[in-house]
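R.M. (postdoc): so does anyone remember the format we settled on? I'll just put the structure tokens first.
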């Protein structure tokens, strides 16, 4: 009987997903475009959109350190934004690829 090769395999990167709600002066100030730019340059997948109640909603998915970088970025946002609060809900990753601005 031959045993399968038991050599250690490449460690798989664990992905994380954050569902984020940002409130304050975050609409009409380039927040979504800046989030897209930051996410695509960082390598985070997901999406961002305005909500009818004046908040911005975003989903960031990727390596934990990169997702955390995006969450921290949300506390400042675009240069014209005035962020009051950032709420984060952790979720199971869904295998998103790319980042989009939703309307």
């Amino acid at each position: 009987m031959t045993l399968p090769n038991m050599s250690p395999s490449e460690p798989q990167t664990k992905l994380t997903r954050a569902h984020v709600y940002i409130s304050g002066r975050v609409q009409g100030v380039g927040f979504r475009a800046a989030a897209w730019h930051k996410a695509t340059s960082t390598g985070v997948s997901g999406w961002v959109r305005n909500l009818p109640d004046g908040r911005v909603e975003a989903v960031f998915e990727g390596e934990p350190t990169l997702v955390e970088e995006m969450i921290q970025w949300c506390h400042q946002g675009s240069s014209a934004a005035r962020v009051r609060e950032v709420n984060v809900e952790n979720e199971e990753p869904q295998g998103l690829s790319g980042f989009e601005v939703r309307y």
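R.M.: ...and that's the designed sequence above, right after the tokens. Also worth knowing: The first strand starts at residue 16 and ends at 25. The two ends are 60 Å apart (CA to CA).
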